[in-house]
Amino acid sequence: MPLNGPSAASPRRGSCFGRRLLLALFILALTALVSAESEDHGTLLVGSSLRRGSSHVLKKRGTSSSPSTSSSSNNNTIIPYAFDASLGKNFTEESCPEFFNTFLASESFIQCYPFSFFLQNSESFFQIVKQGAFKLSSTMDLICAVNGTQCTTIMDNYAKQLVASSNCATDYQLENPLVRQAYNAFTSYSMLYSSGCLQSTSGSYCYVDSVTNSTNPGDSYLYYLPLDVSLPGGTRPSCSSCSQNVMSIFLNYAGNTSLAISQTYVPAAQQINVFCGPNFASTAVTVASASTTSSVSVATATANAREALVAGGLASFALLLGLL
Ligand SMILES: *[C@@H]1O[C@H](CO)[C@@H](O)[C@H](O)[C@H]1NC(C)=O
Ligand SMILES: *[C@@H]1O[C@H](CO)[C@@H](O)[C@H](O)[C@H]1NC(C)=O
Ligand SMILES: *[C@@H]1O[C@H](CO)[C@@H](O)[C@H](O)[C@H]1NC(C)=O
Ligand SMILES: *[C@@H]1O[C@H](CO)[C@@H](O)[C@H](O)[C@H]1NC(C)=O
Ligand SMILES: *[C@@H]1O[C@H](CO)[C@@H](O)[C@H](O)[C@H]1NC(C)=O
Question: Where are the chain's structural domains?
Answer without folding.
Answer: 17-53+79-197, 218-223+236-324
